[in-house]
Design goal:
The structure holds 2 protein chains of 2 kinds.
Chain A (H helix, E strand, L loop, with lengths): L1 H16 L3 H16 L13 H17 L5 H21 L10 E3 L8 H13 L4 E4 L3 H8 L4 E2 L6 H6 L6 H10 L4 E5 L13 E6 L3 E6 L4
Parallel strand pairs in A: 2-3, 2-4
Antiparallel strand pairs in A: 4-6, 5-6
Helix pairs in contact in A: 2-3, 3-4
Chain B lengths: L1 H17 L1 H9 L6 H25 L4 H25 L13 H23 E3 L2 H4 L3 H9 L7 H13 L3 H8 L1 H20 L3 H14 L18 H23 L9 H64 L3 E5 L8 E5 L5 E5 L6 H9 L4 E7 L4 H13 L3 E7 L8
Parallel strand pairs in B: 4-5, 5-6
Antiparallel strand pairs in B: 2-3, 3-4
Helix pairs in contact in B: 1-3, 2-3, 2-4, 3-4, 3-8, 3-10, 3-12, 4-8, 5-10, 5-11, 7-8, 10-11, 10-12, 14-15
Classes of the chains: A alpha/beta, B alpha/beta.
């Protein structure tokens, strides 16, 4: 039970605090401030501001190194501790928000892939307030670009989970889509289709390098 | 670029004017006015008034244009009231600048360079985090419909601005907003650091900026990560409101008079009288505290145990459901081996549940075959027997004749072995 509890705590901690080093860093810095601000405890509301707390604590440590008080060993120890905190702050406290795994170069001012914008524009030009199914992850882009189409959410439809597979079964996608009156399907051209969607009652109306737009074939 | 510059200038003119209240609060509490705090607090108030007018707009179904006009009027009224209050209290023009030393000046230049780097980077780089974009659809809906919709307050304000200017909310968020907002939130850092660290504040701000760039931790924190979600209400609260609140609290606590310490003889007598009573109370307090801690621990363990158990049961249930659907959706083959030990046939169960049997053997196998088929369903869609002899289709004929097994269509495979 204890092992499972610890595992759950670890999982939740990873979800909310990530690798947790910023929290550790913050707690260490808060400790430094609390210990050194004994005579000035009115400055402690600074703890509300996480990055400045870290900055102020590091500054305090460096000031302690430079001051004339304390023994030589104490000063060296403080300096080493401050440098270690700096290294932790800059290199290990998390991911750089501009790192390639988090950010990619924006294609346009809207920060949405241009091909996806074009595909949605094609859907909007063809139908006024259509119901659209698209690849997992793209639904958020489509909703941010326009509120006119009803974009099926990831947790709403079995067709969506089918599209999340490596080799989605287009028959199942079409069956589930028709059940929900989904008029348009925007697919990535990067997925492998054993049987293309246009074999199951949908026709292609627009395509570019990234995506293809399918419309349900309707009989008069 | 011109639009961005215009938006930034308008925002900061308003922020500087409304920020007069910061000077009043600081000076009334015995502090010293500072430009960073004035602009940062002013900017936060401008955003707050904008959000309030948007919420009122949604409540009374006002169009976005009215919301923006109301927000502008509120800001102007707030600024005028601030100047009137200041002149009434004799604050007038407060000295906002302290002449920085050369070193300070260079540090402030470095901070400015970091802020410019941050602004350019968030404009150039597209976040790959879906949670960042998930906040924007509300603003898009306001922009496209021209009606105020209750949603995230910052997104309501963004939608209003987009609707009035005719610029898509995505462009507003990623092109117009980074410059004023990232600068504003960094000014909150500067104000907090300057209040606590004085003239060495810029060094603390540089550390804070580096932590901001390297500080991304987890998916749950994206809405409050400054350089990923600078336009969100989460960042407004965590960086803006908390930052300004910290500064104002510090100034208030510093300005509060210290409690006087009486060392008169009268108090010694009173101490003697109450010492005994105090000891008893102390013991009671300690006992109550220990009991509370013990109860707290027990409650925590119980809640945690229920949580873990619940989580495990849910996971087990999900796994079972997935396993069932997975097994049900697969094509399976089962081998029929009667008591003789030799394989006499194969049952194929298709992904849609239909059964096909191949083989069967002599009539002697009929009972064993019936038991075998009962496990998978006695409704066989197709039956392929190896030949027309009794030894090859006897079991099939007996089961069909007795009605123990229902067979849709039966076939005989008259195959001949290919010999060289």
């Amino acid at each position: 039970m204890i092992k499972e509890l610890l595992y759950e705590l670890y999982t939740d901690h990873r979800l909310f605090v990530g690798t947790g080093t910023v929290l550790v860093l913050y707690l260490l810095c808060a400790l430094v401030l609390v210990m050194t601000q004994k005579e000035k405890d009115h400055d402690l509301p600074l703890l509300l501001c996480v990055p400045v707390t870290i900055g102020a604590a590091l500054l305090k440590l460096f000031e302690a190194c430079r001051s004339g008080e304390g023994s030589r060993a104490m000063k060296i120890g403080t300096g080493v501790f401050a440098v270690a905190l700096c290294i932790l702050a800059v290199t290990m406290s998390g991911k750089n928000v501009f790192s390639p795994e988090i950010s990619v170069r924006a294609e346009n001012e809207m920060h949405i892939p241009t091909d996806i914008c074009a595909a949605e524009a094609a859907v909007l030009a063809d139908g006024d307030c259509p119901i659209v199914l698209t690849m997992p992850g793209w639904d958020t882009y489509l909703r941010a670009y326009s509120s006119r189409p009803t974009v099926i959410r990831e947790d709403e439809d079995p067709a969506f989970s089918e599209l999340g597979k490596i080799h989605p079964d287009m028959g199942k996608v079409a069956k589930a889509a028709k059940k929900k009156d989904i008029a348009y399907v925007i697919l990535s051209k990067g997925i492998w289709q054993d049987m293309p969607l246009d074999r199951f009652g949908y026709e292609i109306i627009y395509e570019n390098d990234t995506c293809a737009v399918y419309r349900e074939v309707s009989t008069p | 670029m011109i639009m961005t510059a215009a938006a930034t200038i308008i925002f900061y003119v308003l922020a500087f004017s409304v920020g007069k209240w910061a000077d009043i609060i600081v000076i009334k509490n015995g502090g010293r006015a500072q430009i960073a705090l004035r602009v940062a607090m002013g900017g936060c108030i401008v955003l707050l008034l904008g959000m309030i007018s948007c919420i009122a707009g949604a409540l009374f179904s006002f169009p976005p244009m009215i919301c923006i006009i109301v927000a502008a009027l509120l800001n102007v009224a707030f600024a005028v009231a601030g100047y009137l209050a200041a002149s009434k209290q004799g604050i007038g023009r407060a000295a906002l600048f302290e002449k920085p030393s050369k070193c300070e000046f260079l540090l402030y230049l470095l901070i400015l360079a970091i802020i410019v780097f941050e602004i350019i980077s968030v404009r150039m780089y597209q976040s790959d985090m879906i949670a960042v974009y998930a906040q924007i659809p509300a603003a898009t809906a306001i922009y496209e419909t021209g009606r105020m919709i209750f949603s995230d307050p910052m997104m309501m304000l963004t939608g209003c601005v987009a609707s009035v200017t005719g610029i898509h909310p995505l462009t507003v968020v990623f092109t117009l907003m980074p410059a004023p907002l990232i600068l504003l939130y960094n000014l909150c850092y500067v104000a907090a650091a300057h209040t606590v660290c004085g003239r060495r504040g810029p060094v603390a701000v540089i550390f804070a900026s580096l932590v901001t760039i390297w500080g991304y931790q987890s998916d749950a924190l994206i809405p409050v990560t400054l350089l990923l979600s600078w336009f969100s209400t989460g960042v407004y609260i965590v960086v803006g409101v908390f930052g300004i609140a910290a500064v104002l609290l510090i100034i208030y606590l510093r300005g509060r008079p210290e409690k006087s310490e009486d060392n008169s003889e009268e108090t010694e007598e009173t101490d003697e009288q109450y010492r005994e009573e105090w000891d008893m109370k102390k013991h009671r307090i300690i006992n109550a505290r220990n009991l509370a801690i013990a109860l707290g621990i027990v409650t925590f363990v119980l809640i945690a145990a229920v949580f873990v158990l619940n989580n495990k049961i849910n996971k087990l249930y999900d796994a079972t459901v997935n396993l069932q659907s997975d097994l049900g959706s697969r094509c399976s083959v089962y081998e029929f081996i009667p008591d003789s030990g030799a394989s006499e046939g194969y049952l194929l169960r298709a992904s849609d549940g239909t059964l096909t049997f191949v083989g069967g053997g002599a009539a002697a196998n009929a009972d064993a075959l019936k038991d075998f088929l009962e496990k998978y369903g006695s409704d066989v869609e197709k039956w392929y027997a190896y030949g027309q002899d009794e030894a090859e289709n006897g079991a099939m004929r007996q089961l069909i004749k007795s009605g123990q097994v229902s067979v849709g269509r039966s076939f005989v495979i008259e195959t001949k072995e290919i010999t060289q």
